[in-house]
Amino acid sequence: MATMLGLLAVTLAAVLVSLRFGAEDIGLIEAGEILLKTLPTGERSGESLGTSSVILLQVRLPRVLLALMVGGALATVGVVLQALLRNPLADPYVLGISSGAALGAAVAMLLGVGGTGLGLYAMPFCAFAGGLLSILLAYRIAVSYGRLPVHTLLLTGVILNAVFSALIMFVTSVMDPNRSYALLFWLMGMLTSPSYSALGVLALYLTVGMLVLAAHSSALNVLTLGEDSARSLGVEVEQVKKVIFIMAALLTGAVVSVSGVIGFIGMVIPHAVRMVFGADHRLLLPASALVGGTSLLVADTIARSAFAPGEIPVGVVTALVGGPFFIYLLMRRRAGLG
């Protein structure tokens, strides 16, 4: 409990600091006053309180909340995939789930689904379908005689990433030029300020996925001992694997539909949290969600303030940090095997 309260305090501090940065100068004290005046009443427009309130409530706060949701979901997926595969290199980006989800969202954009009245609900579902297809393909290709070689699965993920990226480029090439440019920019991993209704729909998807995964935290603890040991201890391994794969696709698809492809959060954060707080998934899952959300929030703050008033995709920032970390993990595992 003390650990979670400490992480929550760090997250809240990061939120307040993040609200401070932007093209318009809003001090921490002023930001705090605006939030205290408007949030209890549910007022979101902020017109009666001036320009600063509108910027804070309509632009910065929704983006901050989006970063927390996206980072938390990606870190959670990374935790369960690493537990299931018993490999710290596993994450939705490396295994191709993110690319599959992006393909599903891109096809939905091509068909005009995003412009319909059900677009808020349909886009995450289309991305979920793409992510689920990707993880099922990777599993079917990599599995051999009832076993799942991790290195084969990782290689399969790399191949699927290439195939899905090619298909996304095809979708982009047949789109209207204006829409294709927006799609390419989105694919780099970009957080924009969503509407509160869009945040509500995203929160619905994420709540379902995270609660289901949290309910399997004890099974995940046992699975880290190996599938044979888990079976001997009464865990229905195949059923748990199906649930984890489906929920991983659901969470990944939901966040990809609003943020594009953001890599390495799902790999770096669970590994770092596990090193500090241990491998008990009853703590590891919520702790990774908080640290993942806070980390992506920090990365997005850097992305939108380092070159203000311009900004860079947050996916660039996470790749610059996560790429070298991935190489470090790969070399360390190679040295251990050698």
Question: What is the topology?
Answer:
Blueprint: H1 2-20, H2 28-38, H3 51-85, H4 97-110, H5 119-142, H6 150-173, H7 177-187, H8 196-215, H9 217-223, H10 227-232, H11 237-259, H12 265-277, H13 281-305, H14 314-337
Helix pairs in contact: 1-13, 3-8, 3-11, 3-12, 3-13, 4-5, 4-6, 4-11, 5-6, 5-11, 8-11, 12-13, 13-14
What this model shows, in words?
This protein has 338 residues and is mostly helical. The chain has a single domain, classed as ABC transporter involved in vitamin B12 uptake, BtuC (Orthogonal Bundle), CATH 1.10.3470. The chain contains 14 helices and no strands. α12 crosses α13. The radius of gyration is 20 Å and the shape is globular. 43% of the residues are buried.
What structural keywords apply?
338 residues; globular
Mean pLDDT: 85
User: What's the helix-strand series?
Assistant: HHHHHHHHHHHHHH
> Can you tell me the CATH class?
Mainly Alpha
CATH fold description: ABC transporter involved in vitamin B12 uptake, BtuC
Give me the secondary-structure category.
mainly alpha
The percent of residues in helical segments reads: over 70%
Radius of gyration over all CA atoms, rounded: 20 Å
